[in-house]
Design goal:
alpha/beta; Rossmann fold; 7-stranded mixed sheet
């Protein structure tokens, strides 16, 4: 539902905004909090009585934001990022830079290397829909048995329709695909419930959307240009976003609606 968004069609602006918003904007702070808490809880569970360290693959890593933010965790063995955009690879951030491999999915450059953690933050919606299943299967194959996969993607919202916009990812379909391929979902939640609902109501009111042109409500993936004007976001949105992230971060409560969807799944040990 972003009418004028910065997308990967403008890679320099896109990654510049992405890097700046990672520490400033309330939405970025909120989803990072959820992701960090979920992964840290799983790390504690798996590494409590072990000195083993994790190999981490971050798909669509951009400028390496997440790998930079979590670089000081004393749990990593190897950190590998996959990124198709040369403009992002040229400005990888962080003092302890990970290995970045240029790659478009499907087309994973390794088949036999196994990772303890595979992440994809707002990546699935950028993969063309006809190729999405093949790309996911490639990622599933490089998760070690007992390893963890964490995806964040967009979601259709209340009036969004996955049939009218390929960038919309159905959480129900994604969950089912994970389960059918040997993964057990251990955490899942939407995010940005209040902000997403307010935006949909406002757009629906302004445009007087009827049933015949309902497709105009489709979510359009990208970064809102207003982030340039208000880099931290509205004060009320920051407060509500902070509360939602703390609720979802516990893993005990699933937020039922929001324009972002997060799912964390563990690969069953007996799955080949």
């Amino acid at each position: 539902m972003i009418d004028n968004a910065v997308t990967l069609a403008e890679p320099d602006s896109y990654f510049e905004m992405l890097e700046r918003s990672a520490t400033d904007h309330w939405w970025s702070n909120g989803v990072e909090w959820i992701e960090r808490r979920w992964i840290q809880n799983e790390l504690k569970r798996q590494l409590r009585n072990s000195s083993m360290k994790w190999n981490w693959l971050d798909v669509g890593c951009g400028t390496g934001l997440r790998m930079s933010q979590w670089a000081d965790w004393q749990c990593w063995d190897n950190r590998v990022g996959l990124e198709p955009e040369p403009s992002a690879m040229k400005c990888v951030i962080g003092d302890d830079k990970p290995m970045i491999v240029r790659c478009e999915l499907p087309g994973l450059p390794f088949k036999t290397v196994l990772f303890d953690l595979v992440t994809g933050f707002d990546v699935i919606q950028h993969i063309p829909k006809p190729l999405r299943e093949k790309a996911l299967m490639e990622l599933f194959q490089v998760v070690r048995p007992g390893g963890v996969l964490l995806f964040r993607t967009n979601a259709p919202g209340v009036w969004g329709d996955t049939d009218c916009d390929d960038s919309i990812v159905s959480s129900i379909e994604l969950n089912g695909f994970l389960i059918r391929n040997g993964f057990k979902i251990i955490r899942r939640s939407h995010y940005n419930l209040v902000g997403g609902l307010a935006e949909e109501v406002l757009v629906r009111y302004k445009n007087c959307v009827s049933r015949q042109n309902k497709g105009k409500m489709a979510f359009k993936t990208g970064l809102p240009r207003q982030w340039q004007i208000r880099p931290k976001g509205h004060l009320l949105a920051r407060l509500v976003g902070w509360m939602e992230s703390r609720i979802a971060g516990t893993g005990l409560v699933k937020i039922p609606f929001g324009h972002s969807y997060l799912v964390m799944a563990r690969k069953e040990v007996d799955h080949e």
